Amino acid sequence: MKTKLEDYHNEVEITWCPGCGNFPILKTVKQTLVDLDLPPQRVVICSGIGQAPKLPHYMRVNTFNGLHGREVASATAIKLASPDLTVLVHAGDGGAYGEGANHLVHAIRRNIDITLVVHDNKHFSLTKGQVSPTGETADENKLRGFGRPALPLNPLALAISQRCSFVAQATSAKPAHLSQVLGKAICHKGFSLLNVLQPCVVWDKIHTYQYYQERCFEIDSGHDPENFEQAMQLTTTESTRIPIGIIYQNARPEYRSTLLRKDSRTLRDHHPDTPTLIKLMQKYQ
Q: pLDDT category, 271, cuts 50, 70, 90?
């Protein structure tokens, strides 16, 4: 039976601020999963704490809520145990690139077959708008009227530098394009990082829907996503224009294919050898 949009419908009240950039992301995620004919029971969305991690609460889908910044670690365990499931992570730029930066780097290194969707609005929106790791030095708000002294993190360049097998960027200001890129990220065999630029309508009066609509440009066919140098140049060149689309991609082997290459069973199908465990416990009593 073909998956329908109603299959992902949930009656839970949405508590995001009116106009929040998370709304088009939620709508796009649902539609993309339907377009890929992925039923809710075959999908797991991991999240932590924050505004972006509320997304799976507003869907009828398997969900695992963990600690702030630890979403990728939870998703890794789930994917290793049940590789037949489609595993996504939804995190804010604070959780993914701040507290969760360590997990991000090692998931890239291992090439776990999960899709990390980062809702990047440059702020910790749930905790009164502190500037996140991707916030620009000139960003000002009521908490930081003088801007910020630290340089912003460039998550795309970081991921490419570590040969992440799929690196892309999109914006919630252009949902149709976001859906195209998200679909390709989910279908990619390996770790996929999709950075989604979105407005925060409360704490950020600069990076609005109009700001992203005017500055974001779709990467044309002349760009070779398998070309490392081109990808790095696209993400590190100073410009007022923002690239969206698939920036870098390679065909590194997925982690589980090398870790468990001699055993076709999923980890959830491995059962403990109880008699052997009892003997070991008795031996060391």
A: confident
Question: 65: helix, coil or strand?
Answer: strand
| Residue predicted with more confidence, 51 or 249 | 249
Share of the chain above pLDDT 90, in %: 66
Across the chain, the runs of DSSP E, i.e. the strands, are 43-47, 62-65, 86-92, 115-120, 123-124, 130-131, 166-171, 192-197, 216-218, 242-249
C-alpha distance across the termini of the chain, in Å: 55
Name which of 125, 56, 53 is nearest 96 in CA terms: 53
Strand partners, 217: 243
Spatial distance between the Cα atoms of 159 and 199, rounded to a whole number of angstroms: 23
Read off the DSSP letter of residue 267. Answer: G
SS3 state at 279: helix
Q: What does DSSP assign to residue 253?
A: P
DSSP state of 141: B
3-class DSSP state for residue 86? strand
Length of the chain: 285
Judge contact between 169 and 193, C-beta under 8 A: no
Q: What are the tokens at 227? A: 């070309």
As given in the structure block, the two tokens for residue 131 are: 């500037």
